[in-house]
Amino acid sequence: MKSDRKLKKHTLDEIADAHLLSEDLSQKERAAILKELAMAKDKAVSNLSNEKRILASILQLRFEMEDYASKAVYDKNSSFGAFLKTYISRLQLRNKDFADQLGMEPSELSHILSGYRRPNDKILIRLELHSNKNISALLWYKILEREKEYELSTNFSLREAERPYVKQYFSYSF
Question: Which of 37, 104, 116, 172 has the fewest beta carbons under 10 Å from its own?
């Protein structure tokens, strides 16, 4: 109730101005404030347990994945394998130990990480369960499908190889 009364005293613009950096600040003032915020963040992070740091890192990865999945632009550095490598690294695990935790062979994990093999639905579900649902199987799938979209749109040699199998083309086109 008290917070509701406080909100009614101020306009939304006044509340926003109180919480955001003002445009009226000089570059020097802005830099000082940003430095102070960074120091406060570093202090808060240093007080976290290793487990909570890892969780925060995994949640940050999820947000990065969601951001990438929502964009229409493909980035080869944001492949399924790259995100999975980052996930394993942020957990501070070796690939062999991670493969063991997922109930798979290290060679199978290696093939997935390198892009030589695509993970099946079981692996996507295991990844969701492993992250304690912090990164959903659907999000892992969206990252995987982004790669497939790119492959389909750029694989011109496959189009030419498949052309002879099409006996008749639809006669209308836009």
Answer: 172
d(CA 110, CA 24): 52
Cβ burial 130-165 (10 Å sphere, 16+ → b, else e): bbeeebbbebbbbbbebbeeeeeeeeeeeeeeeeee
Confidence label for 160 from pLDDT (cuts 50, 70 and 90): very high
Q: How far, in Å, CA of 74 to CA of 51, rounded?
A: 33
Residues 6+ apart with CB under 8 A from 170: none
CA 96/CA 82 separation, integer angstroms: 17
| pLDDT attached to residue 12 | 58
The separation between CA 137 and the C-alpha centre of its own chain, rounded to angstroms, equals 12
